[in-house]
Amino acid sequence: MPLSKITVELTNAPKNKPDNDKLGFGKYFTDHMFILDYDAGKGWHDPRIVPYQPIALDPAAKVFHYGQTVFEGMKAYKTPENSILLFRPYKNLQRLNRSSARLSIPHIDEGLVIEALKQLILVDKDWIPDEQGTSLYIRPFVISTQPTLGVQPSEQYKFMIILSPVGSYYAEGINPVNIFVESEYVRAVTGGIGNAKTGGNYAAGLKAQQEATEKGYSQVLWLDGVHRKYIEEVGSMNVFFKVGDKVITPALNGSILDGVTRDSVIRLLKHWKIEVEERTISIDELVDAYRGGQLKEAFGTGTAAVISPIGELNWQGDKLTLNGGKTGELSARVYEFMTGLQRGLIEDPFGWIEKL
Amino acid sequence: MPLSKITVELTNAPKNKPDNDKLGFGKYFTDHMFILDYDAGKGWHDPRIVPYQPIALDPAAKVFHYGQTVFEGMKAYKTPENSILLFRPYKNLQRLNRSSARLSIPHIDEGLVIEALKQLILVDKDWIPDEQGTSLYIRPFVISTQPTLGVQPSEQYKFMIILSPVGSYYAEGINPVNIFVESEYVRAVTGGIGNAKTGGNYAAGLKAQQEATEKGYSQVLWLDGVHRKYIEEVGSMNVFFKVGDKVITPALNGSILDGVTRDSVIRLLKHWKIEVEERTISIDELVDAYRGGQLKEAFGTGTAAVISPIGELNWQGDKLTLNGGKTGELSARVYEFMTGLQRGLIEDPFGWIEKL
């Protein structure tokens, strides 16, 4: 079968769709999914849309043992006029291939994936919720399936796309979260896999996240693994700080994720003539700026929450309250613009929106 | 069902057993496997031995996305008298639980696992090869199966044991390997998950391993992620160096694996009255010892190879040939003792061997 020919098998048993107020994040999945297989010597083959169903793998499949996986996260939105919009999908698929290269996973043609993604969304278009704040979350991922226990790159993979209608990340509009600055655990280090979107980075963060939750914090702020003082990410989001009239964010140093929302926010701020610096930022610099009254706002950026304002940073017991614990003006402005753009309510000056 | 009651379903279709000379490592699996399920609120339940078969998982199962997995590696040996021997099984299962704690995976009763392991091995005892150098490799592992995309510890898991008859790691006795000292990629860092036996660490090593192979080297020697100069591990083994009359090995610093073979070799060397130091070792110290004629031997230790002598270290283009590229006297002596002990050919002075 030519790689461009996607076969479609429709379900005979469509599921009931959940109510919008019960959606949550990544709990419900649509009626279909996309699968593409890889075998060494044969390449990627058999692109197909099939009913959403369990996948059967040999217990020796490498994904269960050696974590050779990558994934992406994207969203599709339904406009008031019933158009379906994607946000910078090529940017995510280019990153998927960069992650794959780091994990010794074969490259996938981005055009084929976009085509598959569009077809899949159209098949399940009735699953896209249309209430303010809801969207269809898109999860493309690659797993290594060769059933052998040698520690080598797999010779077999599955690339899949699953879709999940998701609710508003904030039940009642955008709300700040409290963040624990992590000084014991490390997420990633230069030379490691921190800039790849792969399971191991998320596994490495679970324990710190769990301990932060027990202390009453939503997420941790990660510091670098070498000096234990430079800001990296917040939870699984990139992070921005407004200091005086400037915005600063950690530079892409090899151990943090090259976020699509991060890149978009930087370009948006520059578009608004707000000065943005991508550079090394130490926790001491932030504390000093806070003491001097210059640390005005902070927010995380990621596909799931889009913008997540930070109300408090706990650094070794010191509580730094930002903007009185309330959503800052800039955070709100960026959130409104980004979500408005993604939902087609604001004209797109950047060419980021792709209409199906 | 009480947790101690293991049900057994035997296969109706036993597979053909591979020839001893075709075994390789982790390519063939026996007729049965052990499964234990976990659900939050219910705990571990339904221990069962069933025919070896694919497992069906929802595509959203957390293991496919966030790498929340742990595993172990052990071996069973058949003696010339047809006894079945295990080597320090509790030590591995204690480490499994330490790895699980780091990955926010619930604790499993070690006694139950030993019982399950023994029953499973007895069911498949005809699969244990008995030729010199062969054994039955045992792979216990835990995967997170909850089908939700939130980045949190899973509320559902499967613990499984699969068995694989494996060949001699060395086709013609013990042979030295050439090692590339890695200066670009990093396996793990203090504060991370380097001392847990989890997929992410192995995923992080694939690229370096692949590039070393392309340069003609078997494995990489990992340096620490902070200073990029202290020795950590070799491939996925611990590493020992004979310098003068002493043996040195990296101390357990939180970023290397607490190897069972490592611990056994340290105790064996002390039993032989050979001085062993567990401490920080820089690559510069090794190069200096080499230049001064004091670096006599080096070898890796791990369950798969037991002892893997190092014939050459390539450090930034400098080739350090150890013991003329031949297996050293001490490496051979340790290998002979350890494999003799594990196969029941040598009396066990340590109480490490457990007979089924």
Automatic annotation (TrEMBL), chains A, B:
Required cofactor(s): pyridoxal 5'-phosphate
Catalytic activity: L-valine + 2-oxoglutarate = 3-methyl-2-oxobutanoate + L-glutamate; L-leucine + 2-oxoglutarate = 4-methyl-2-oxopentanoate + L-glutamate; L-isoleucine + 2-oxoglutarate = (S)-3-methyl-2-oxopentanoate + L-glutamate
Keyword vocabulary terms for this entry: Amino-acid biosynthesis, Aminotransferase, Branched-chain amino acid biosynthesis, Pyridoxal phosphate, Transferase
Pathway: Amino-acid biosynthesis; L-leucine biosynthesis; L-leucine from 3-methyl-2-oxobutanoate: step 4/4; Amino-acid biosynthesis; L-isoleucine biosynthesis; L-isoleucine from 2-oxobutanoate: step 4/4; Amino-acid biosynthesis; L-valine biosynthesis; L-valine from pyruvate: step 4/4
GO MF term list: branched-chain-amino-acid transaminase activity
Keyword Ribosomal protein appears in the UniProt entry: no
EC number(s) from the headed UniProt entry: 2.6.1.42
Database matches in InterPro entries: Aminotrans_IV, Aminotrans_IV_CS, Aminotransferase-like, B_amino_transII, BCAT-like_C, BCAT-like_N, BCAT_family
SUPFAM superfamilies: D-aminoacid aminotransferase-like PLP-dependent enzymes
Keyword Oxidoreductase among UniProt keywords: no
PANTHER family in the cross-refs: BRANCHED-CHAIN-AMINO-ACID AMINOTRANSFERASE, SUBGROUP IIII AMINOTRANSFERASE
Protein family (similarity comment): Belongs to the class-IV pyridoxal-phosphate-dependent aminotransferase family.
Name of the protein: Branched-chain-amino-acid aminotransferase
Biological source species: Cohnella soli
Upper lineage: Bacteria, Bacillati, Bacillota, Bacilli, Bacillales
